[in-house]
Amino acid sequence: SYELTQPPSVSVSPGQTARIPCSGDALPKQYAFWYQQKPGQAPVLVIYNDSERPSGIPERFSGSRSGTTVTLTISGVQAEDEADYHCQSADSNGTYWVFGGGTKVTVL
Amino acid sequence: QVQLVESGGGVVQPGRSLRLSCVASGFSFSSFGLHWVRQAPGKGLEWVAVISYDGSHRKYIESVKGRFTISRDNSKNTLYLQMNSLRTEDTAVYYCAKGGRGVPFDYWGQGTLVTVSS
């Protein structure tokens, strides 16, 4: 079955930049989406269609793609950004939806 | 604003059944597809099932095919997940999520915990 691969954890100091990669063979064919999930809370969409930001999401969140890897970048990280971040896409045929394993962002 | 409220979770023995519900408000319920997504303890998210806006199309992850049934009642703004022959590996928080225009999951509920244990 198709998989998306993310690092389990990323640590960053306040004000620095966090980059979270997500790799998958079908990513060149399918859009990627990113969700932020804080402990005990539901996920929140922060990036759609690789790099678009929903209304209400701060500009410090951005997304990019290079080949089979998409990356969520959080610039000028704040303490409130500490959360799990999940990438999501679809298989190459768009038949079913897949999530990465999630990356825990720790703000030092 | 969009609200999705799940219910029906609980502790159940392996092999038994459970039905989850998700009551929606704040949007035109009958215009959008809806999903169930689950998250096992300490694990990532896993898409489970989707139903089209009118209920005519449904898809499932392979591991629940033949055991789970997704359905909806547009007159009650409610999404359901009938779970039969439950297994210990079905233990998870189950979220309902709304599909958007070109976005698979644009709003999520708070989830309901299902624990399958003897």
Please explain how this structure is put together.
- The complex is a heterodimer of chains A (108) and B (118).
- Chain A is built from no helices and nine strands.
- Chain A is mainly beta and 108 residues long.
- Chain B is mainly beta.
- In chain B, 0% of the residues lie in helices and 49% in strands.
- The model of chain B has no long low-confidence stretch (mean pLDDT 96).
- The interface between A and B is medium-sized, with 22 and 22 residues.
> How would you characterize the largest beta sheet of chain B?
7 strands, mixed
Average pLDDT figure of chain A: 95
**How would you name the oligomeric state of the polypeptide chains in this document?**
heterodimer
* Tertiary shape of chain B: globular
Mean pLDDT of chain B: 96
> How many beta-strand elements of chain B?
11
Strand content of chain B: over 45%
Let me know the largest β-sheet of chain A.
6 strands, mixed
Cα-atom radius of gyration of chain A: 13 Å
Instruction: Show unreliable segments of chain A.
Output: none
Task: Give the proportion of residues in helices of chain B.
Answer: under 10%
> Structural class, from secondary structure content of chain B?
mainly beta
The DSSP helix count of chain A reads: 0
Alpha-beta classification of chain A: mainly beta
List keywords for this structure.
heterodimer; A: 108 residues; mainly beta; six-stranded mixed β-sheet; three-stranded antiparallel β-sheet; globular; B: 118 residues; seven-stranded mixed β-sheet; four-stranded antiparallel β-sheet; 11 strands
SSE inventory with pairings:
The complex is a heterodimer of chains A (108) and B (118).
Chain A (H helix, E strand, L loop, with lengths): L8 E4 L5 E6 L9 E5 L6 E4 L13 E6 L2 E6 L8 E8 L6 E3 L3 E5 L1
Parallel strand pairs in A: 1-9
Antiparallel strand pairs in A: 2-6, 3-4, 3-7, 5-6, 7-8, 7-9
Chain B lengths: L2 E5 L2 E3 L5 E8 L8 E6 L5 E7 L6 E3 L7 E6 L4 E6 L8 E7 L8 E2 L3 E5 L2
Parallel strand pairs in B: 2-11
Antiparallel strand pairs in B: 1-3, 3-8, 4-5, 4-9, 5-6, 7-8, 9-10, 9-11
